Amino acid sequence: MDDATRTELEAAREQLEAAAFRRLLAHLDERSDVQNIDLMNLAGFCRNCLSRWYQEAANAEGIPLGKEDARAIVYGMPYEDWRAKHQTEAAPDQQAAFERNRPKDH
After folding, report:
1. DSSP symbols for 40-94
2. Which fold, 31-101?
3. Which end of the chain has fewer CB atoms surrounding its CB within 10 Å, N or C?
4. What is the signed CA dihedral for 36, 38, 39, 40, rounded to 10 degrees?
5. Inter-CA distances, 54 with 11, 21, 44, Å
6. Contact 43/97 with Cβ under 8 angstroms?
């Protein structure tokens, strides 16, 4: 990559990151069949992690954002509504994998 292209990308970085984040949320909306425990077991993060990171980033910028508001942004609806509509009970093997690989902050 040449210097001019790198500079242009760096200047557009925030817009690119925001667009990628919006696309990730849209993808997760399309794949509501993928449970958070599946995401945690495969990738080490889930929708709740994304909402926490979003909340932390907003607060770091001086934008007050509560936990439930951040979750509604990530889930596209109130968290409890999403759970009632999409969440299933974790199978014993999913729960065992989660316990083996649980991130320190969960």
Report:
1. HHHHS--HHHHHHHHHHHHHHTT----HHHHHHHHHSS-HHHHHHHH--PPPHHH
2. SMc04008-like fold (1.10.3340)
3. N
4. 90
5. 22, 10, 16
6. no
Per residue in 69-98, pLDDT (tens digit) is 999 999 999 999 999 999 999 999 999 999
Sign of torsion, CA 58 59 64 67? positive
Q: Which of 37, 48, 43 has its CA nearest to residue 72?
A: 48
The single residue listed with the structure tokens 């509604």 is: 72
Angle subtended by helix axes 13-30 and 47-60, to nearest 10: 150
Is the separation of the CB atoms in 45 and 54 below 8 Å? no
* Tokens, residue 23: 């696309």
Q: For residue 47, count other CB atoms closer than 10 A to its CB.
A: 21
Query: In which element (H, E) is residue 29 found?
Result: helix 13-30
> pLDDT digits over 37-77, tens only?
999 999 999 999 999 999 999 999 999 999 999 999 999 99
Pull the structure tokens for residue 21: 């984040």
